[in-house]
Each structure stands twice: as C-alpha cells, then as structure tokens.
Amino acid sequence: MKKMLTKAMQADIARQMYNVARDIDVAIYNYLDNTMDHDFILDALMFYLTKDGGFGGGLYIDNYNTNASVYQVYEALRIMDMCDFDKNCKLELYDLIINKAFNFIYNRAELKDNRFNPNVKTNDDFAHSMEFSYTEDNRLLFGYHPTAAILGYTLKFCNEKKAYYKKAIKMIDVMLNDFYKMEKLTKYEFISFNIFLKIIKELNLYQEDAIKIEEKLIKLAKENVSLDFDDYSKIHPLDCAMALNDNELNNMIDLQLDSIIDKIQPHGLWDYEGNWGYNKYAEEDSAKIKWVGAVSVNNYFYLKKYGRIE
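^ that's the sequence the OP posted. Answer follows.
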C-alpha cells in the first residue's frame, strides 16, 4: 500500500513553512496548495533579480553571490516550470523576467564548447559550496548542466520569433550532435538532459530526437550508474522522472516517494541532507536552515504530482 501525506502532516507543513521558509518557498507552497495564484511567484523572484538582468543573491541557496550567474538563472526557470508558467502567460512581469533572464544567458554568460559555465568569477568573493567555486574542474563537472535544461526552458518560455529562441535552436543542434557521441554523463548532465527531454515531450518538439534521447539516457543510466536507490534519485529527478519510459527505472519512483514521506521530521518538515564539501564558510549553517523550506516545498511538489496527498 502506498504511503500518503496525511491531512495532519499537511497542516504541520503549512504551519512550519510560514515559520522557517524563505518568501519564495512560501509563495511556491501556497501556489501548489491552491491558496494563491502563481502571479505571486513572479513578485517573489523579483527580489533576486540583479542589475544585469540575471538572478543572484542566494536564489540557489548554496551560492551567496549577489551577482548573477547561469546556475541561479536556471534555478529561477526551474521554479517557473514547477509553477506552471509557459509562453502563453500574458503578465507584464512575466515578460520582464523572461527577457532579462535570457538576455543575461544568451548575451552575457560565459560560453565554451556550446556549454554555459554555471559559475562566475565573483562566486569566489562570497560564501558558496565547493561546486560553485569558479574552477575549470567544476565547469567540466557540470558539463551540459544546466545548459541542456536552459535550452529546454527557452523553448517553453520564449516566443518562437524571439532572438533567444533562435539562438537556442542553433545551440540545440550542436548539443544533440554532442550528446549522441557521449559515452558517459556526469550526475548533473543526467538531470539536465532529463529536463530537456521532459520539455520537448510536453511541447511535441524534436519528436524523433526525443525517442533517441530517451533510449540513450536509459542505456547510459543502466551501463554507467549503479541503480541503487541513492544513485537513482541523483540522475533521475522526480520532477521529470516519467520522461524515461523504462520499467526498471520507474519502479524506483514509488520507493522514492515512500522514502520522502518516511523522512518527515518531528518538526513537520524535511531536513537538508547535503553539505558544502568543506568547512570554509560559516554561512553553511544558515544555508542549512534555509534549505529546510526549499527541500520541503520540492518534496511537497513531488508528492502532489504523483498523487500521494490525501
């Protein structure tokens, strides 16, 4: 029998989110809980918009850089995708945010080998986890993440006549050519290509490529990743898990959802299980507190998506 998020658990989550979560996470939760329109997500994102049009200021919690970076723009787009925004939105604030975000991505961001560098030099002037240090090793570690996801989000959020859309199409052609030659993916690349696949399926674009991408992602996952529970959750995020139509992989979804419910803490929310990889910054402690709200809203999203809420 599938485990469910009970009404009592939901009441605890609602109460505690207001006590500990960031405004952006409360806004997301209120939208998912049907108590607030998603317009307020855009208002909350505006607090993280930087002068150069990107996003910064800890929108992604493990990077305290007040300047924009590609990864923080990716986080803004991921949130908008989670909250059901798309190019049909008529709100002026939506157009403002999308235009500024993609202007930063396509006109300002560092691009090498058809991949956006998720990090910027100024990251090193602020507290951040190890993976957000501006190093060549980290650029290679991320690989096509979040580039592949951002290219998918461009298709979803931008009008076809926009210059950003046309730039994305050119980059996608190169990316797919690269992808079909890749024999291994980093854990980050699994996530990003999963997101890209999810979006092109939603939009009915690149239909022949979608079949080939799906087949290759399944093949690479089975060949290069030990499919125990922990590894599976890293390469196959629940927000796009059904993008891969494979019984062996998708049988893990129910186990993952059960595990999420099992991990609810006595305080009513979920604890953050990650770390920054070193003891360089005291801000890691405050980041862990902020993560409680962010992790909880993400888990609530997954449970609702897969029908695990009473």
